[in-house]
Amino acid sequence: MSVIELDDVVKRYESGAQTVTALKGVDFHADRGEMVTIIGPSGSGKSTMLNMIGLLDTPTSGSVRLDDHDVTDFTEDELTEERRTNLGFVFQDFHLLPMLSAVENVELPSVWDTSVDRRDRAIDLLKRVGLGDRLDHTPDELSGGQQQRVAIARSLINEPDILLADEPTGNLDQDTGRTILEEVTRLKEEENIAVVAVTHDEQMLDYTDRTVRIVDGVIQS
Amino acid sequence: MSVADALWRFPSAMMAWRNLGRNRMRTALAALGIVIGVVAISSLGMAGVALQQQATSNLGSLTNQVSVSAGQDSDYDGVTEEQVEEIRSIITDAEVIPQKTNSTTVSSRGQEAYVSVTGVTDAAALYDVSRGTAPERLQTGALISNSTAQQLGLELGDPVEYDGHLYRIRGFIDSGSGFGPGGGRGELVVPISGLADQDHYDSVTIIADSGDAATETADTLEEHFNTDGRDEEEVLRVSSYASVQENIGSFLNTLQLALLGIGGISLVVASVAILNVMLMSTVERRGEIGVLRAVGIRRGEVLRMILTEATFLGTLGGLVGATCSLAVGAVMFQVVAGDPAGVLQWASARYLLYGFAFAVFASVLSGLYPAWKAANDSPVEALRG
Q: Which residues of A touch B11 (CB under 8 A)?
């Protein structure tokens, strides 16, 4: 069963006097243990699509199903809750908080929930991405590749079903990018999660199970 | 468990603290604005208290006194014996002390001093002495003001002459402060028999229990002896100092409000500065806040985090400001009242508390809009930076 599903999703924006249709009836699904890569030229709607999958934005029409639950009409607060418990995010710019140590950054999405103590899982995840000796380093003491590993560990702290990656290798050199992709592939299998990535990076296609091409708001294949 | 680990249990506080630490210069400058505001509001408030206390202590015991002298429509050049008896019969709950006054030159060891002379029986009720005694029934001795005694080199027991009689000095009048009859000039107090050649009393002092009682006494006498309206007639001039104190008190209250207002303006300016700093820092951190929202931090939690930052700024500035104000207040009380410890009494110390509370309140208020704005920003827009 698909863990995330878009069904005939349309997204329109009011941009000044014009109406821009970014997605024109998109169908999409991703399963556990699968890595799906969304590719397409800039302005094709792939970021909008990732925002829909990541529950950061809501469709104008169509439906979004998370783990077979319809979340299309969820309120902002309900969507926040779903993002926290079911989704992990990795960004092109890593987006770590500079005043927090590596382990604190990893723990961040869980700290406001005082019912759980994720410190041990945070340390464990950092060890699994090879940063067991960098727990107390702040982001400016880490290389780009190391920062992205911290971000990956952060995305997994709440044991999500889906990992969303927006150009995860975009700010890294080719070799570092490759090790990051190997890391993601390994964690995808260990944690049995779906990975949905948006990229321009050709080498990412070597690691992907399925590729979805979007042009002008329409899925091509 | 370290302090940081313990703080981590209060994520809003932890994040706020770390965020303030990121740009220490900006944090310090924002807090400095609050410090100045608190110092302004607290020390101006305390200045008002110091002035008020100074004024009250200068007026001293005069406020419960009523002074009676001959009015412009009196047939006599003073208060008559009969009138004094009449006053005594009306005013039963206060001391009535008739006095005769004159002035003369006292000389001793070649030095001369011009003094006012008061003839009185109950000297104890009217005068505080710094040395010696003020007898309740002054029959033979005399009292003399400190300054005159020093000027003439007089000691207790020395004789002074007035109107051909010699009096031994029994006490020195404490004349350091206060104004009213005889204030400022040297004073000689002799038994009333010493001024026996004057038929009438120049004035009658009535000492009531309190300022309010004095005002009441004055009204009673006014009503009894004088008439108002068209046939206005003033047989006795009745004056009480309670109204003077009331007037000064209300003036000082107005002054204090004005001073607090000025202090308040500076705190308003400071909170605008905080609003600006918080707004700037949330705009700068827009992407970061977008990440927080994306990874599932709720809007209320973002709001709380930024409000906590503002609260920390206000608390920090308020504490430093209150400490500085305490020092300023101590100096002020030293200068105005001569006692730096006066700043610690509740009447003035409460302005430290007000200043601090106002600082925290103003900071939270200025944090509200930036916090609300950051929390309600769309995560998609925020992530775009």
A: 111-112
